[in-house]
Amino acid sequence: MKGLFITIEGIDGSGKTTLATNLVALLSRKGYPVIQTQEPTKGRIGELLRTYLQEAKIPPGVDALLFAADRVEHWKELILPSLEQGRIVVSDRHKLSSLAYQSAQGLEMDWILEINTLVPDPDLIIYLDIPIDTALERINKKSQLEKFEVRNELEKIQKHYQRALSKTKSRIICLDSTLSPEDLTNKAFNEILPYLPSLSR
Ligand code: TYD
After folding, report:
1. Per-residue model confidence (pLDDT) at position 117
2. Contact predicate 184/15, CB 8 Å
3. To 5 degrees, how large is the angle CA 195–CA 20–CA 90?
4. Which of 97, 99, 161 to mutate to test the pocket of ligand 1 (most atoms within 8 A of CB)?
5. 18, 19, 99, 106: which sits with the fewest CB atoms below 10 Å from its CB?
6. Are the beta carbons of 132 and 155 closer than 8 angstroms?
7. How many domains does the chain fold into?
């Protein structure tokens, strides 16, 4: 594969979307062919998931299977073709989110791994580390909260992320997300630099 697949992970409020947007803008300014994407996707399964995420009563197994289905479609339709064209793909969340969030909902991590075997692990995972209080301050600025966006859920998910990180085959880059957005972007860029495809000028 010619491209590079990078995912950004962390609890809600950890600043993934800001970093993804800033990192993609920086890579693009430097001349790298790059695309930004996210999970849940903006496709039909992703949109269904977003409505389900507003409802606490959806069974965790349904969430897990839908996230896995959304991921298969995402991989086949966007990520794989982009990598084959030599692009860098930056995804705001991917498989590790399912391992952390759906296991925090009580599902076995090995089963979650099993239903996600159709999609490979990313080359690099940028994991954003953040104190729960800082994440909650950021989340509380939003009007419509999703079911995971409360303190005890976030604490549980953060613990499950630590276990999930030990299960992935990806290279992990752990960054302190209390840094300013600019410093975080520069730090992320410096960390991924050794893995970037060389630019043909
Ligand atoms: P999020 O990245 O917060 O999207 P947005 O910023 O558009 O609201 O993702 C929505 C929620 O979905 C988030 O709370 C985490 C959850 N999620 C899972 O539980 N499992 C998964 O596999 C993924 C991709 C997300």
Report:
1. 97
2. yes
3. 50
4. 97
5. 106
6. yes
7. 1
Dist. CA 35–CA 152, nearest whole Å: 34
How large is the angle between the packed helices 151-165 and 132-139, nearest 10 degrees?
Answer: 120
Q: Which atom of ligand 1 is nearest to the CA of 147?
A: 14
Of 44, 40, 162, 50, the C-alpha closest to 99 is 162
Q: How far apart are CA 24 and CA 182, in angstroms?
A: 13
In tens, the pLDDT along 37-95 reads: 999 999 999 999 999 888 888 999 999 999 999 999 999 999 999 999 999 999 999 99
As a whole number of angstroms, the distance between CA 9 and CA 26 comes to 19
Element (H, E) at 158: helix 151-165
Rounded Cα distance between 199 and 191, Å, is 17
Establish whether residue 103 lines the binding site of ligand 1, counting it when its CB lies within 6 angstroms of any ligand atom.
no
Instruction: Give the CATH number, domain containing residue 54.
Output: 3.40.50.300
Average pLDDT of the residues in 168-181: 97
Check if the beta carbon of residue 125 is closer than 8 Å to that of residue 96: yes
Residue 132 Cα to ligand 1 midpoint, Å, equals 17
Q: Is 161 exposed, middle or buried (0-12, 13-18, 19+ CB in 10 A)?
A: buried
Contact 53, 108 (CB under 8 A): no
pTM of the model: 0.95
